[in-house]
Specification:
Length: 368
């Protein structure tokens, strides 16, 4: 039974997952409403709200999983990447709980955790596979080998796919985050109506780029007066549909190219943008045409949650990893590696509580 904690951005989440596959509870307190009026996440506001929400959220996750009387067997926490103040709330609580319960602790990479949502949704899925992880902060194409090693094959050179969708959505007054609202508007539009660029088209690359697309869309609006509120709804719907199509075109092409290069039979999507129906339909169709199997988590496991963190933590722990008490938040934690001396069996003798606190009192912080 693994308790997962996720506080990297604006969702305070806790979940209990059994054996890396079965979700016993999955609790999420979203701050989206709080940040909406600012048009984006305000880091300081986010970390304060995490502090208020985290204990009730963890309580609910433990209660729903029937863990009132006994602790979980492992605590997994998002260590990074993300907002440092937000990450710290989860990491500090995870350390405190693991220490008090005398259970092991594992630090998890948030982007990698998104990939693991596929293993929760499809218990029979096993690597090798190629996965496109697309969220508000990341667009990464990764290969997961049979032994669970991650290889980054390509990523965005500038904006993440979700960031690109969010930027146009905000400009059109659709609120934040706007990927889902833009998808809704796009349903009423023609995806071939507005000619928009596909960056790096014609290149045999696995990299992506979306900032030129955003600029082209803004120019399109400027040429029509600039103010989206004064444009007919049909024009906005056409722009939304064409813009989404341009993003999806690039994502699908890169995923299929990566599958071919790595000679895998399985492709997967992960991250908030993977909730997008157009993207899912296109990946399904293109994979089917090549005889590949396509996997997606359900939409609620695509966006940020702690069940995916528990699942990823379980697999890291099975691979022999355990965090030290020095585990720290790392806002720019790279994919494929856990940083800060958190790998390996650090607690090689029983933790001595007196030692632990005396280190604190000297101002050195927990060092074991
Ligand atoms: O994974 P996530 O919840 O948080 C990050 O780690 O960033 O992803 C959030 C991103 C946002 O950019 C949001 O607009 C996008 O996922 N998103 C969508 C959809 N639902 C969420 N993008 C397109 N279509 C959707 N249905
Ligand atoms: Zn995420």
């Amino acid at each position: 039974m693994v308790l997962g904690l996720e506080t990297s951005c604006d969702e305070t989440a806790a979940a209990v997952v059994r054996g890396g596959r079965e979700i016993c509870s999955n609790v999420i307190a979203s701050q989206a409403e709080l940040h909406r009026r600012y048009g984006g996440v305000v880091p300081e506001v986010a970390s304060r709200r995490h502090l208020e929400a985290i204990l009730p959220v963890v309580d609910a996750a433990l209660r729903q999983a029937g863990l009132e009387k006994r602790p979980p067997d492992l605590v997994a926490v998002t260590q990074g990447p993300g907002l440092v103040g937000s990450l710290l709330v989860g990491v500090a609580l995870a350390k405190a709980l693991a220490f008090a319960w005398k259970v092991p602790l594992v630090g998890v990479n948030h982007v990698e955790a998104h990939l693991y949502a596929n293993f929760l949704a499809h218990p029979d899925l096993s690597p090798p596979l190629v996965c496109l992880i697309v969220s508000g902060g990341h667009s990464e194409l990764v290969y997961l080998s049979t032994s669970g090693q991650l290889e980054v094959l390509g990523r965005t050179r500038d904006d993440a796919a979700g960031e690109a969708l969010d930027k146009l959505a905000r400009h059109l007054g659709l609120g934040y985050p706007g990927g889902a609202a833009l998808e809704e508007l796009a349903r009423k539009g023609d995806p071939a109506a507005v000619p928009l660029p596909r960056a790096l088209a014609g290149e045999e690359t696995l990299e992506m780029s979306f900032s030129g697309l955003k600029t082209a869309a803004l120019h399109y609006l400027e040429a029509r007066g600039g103010d989206p509120a004064r444009l007919p709804p049909g024009v906005l719907a056409d722009l939304a549909a064409s813009y989404q199509e341009a993003v999806v075109d690039v994502l699908v092409e890169r995923l299929m190219r990566a599958a071919q290069r790595k000679r895998v039979r399985q492709v997967a999507l992960a991250g908030g943008v993977a909730a997008n129906e157009t993207l899912r339909r296109r990946v399904q169709a293109e994979a089917g045409a090549r005889g590949l199997e396509a996997f997606f988590p359900p939409p609620e496991l695509c966006t940020d949650n702690a069940a995916m963190v528990a699942c990823a933590g379980y697999h890291r722990w099975r691979g022999g990893e355990e965090a030290a008490w020095s585990l720290n938040a790392d806002p720019s934690l790279p994919l494929g590696r856990v940083s800060g001396g958190s790998c390996g069996k650090i607690v090689d003798k029983p933790v001595n509580i007196v030692d632990f606190f005396s280190t604190e009192e000297r101002g050195g912080g927990p060092s074991k």
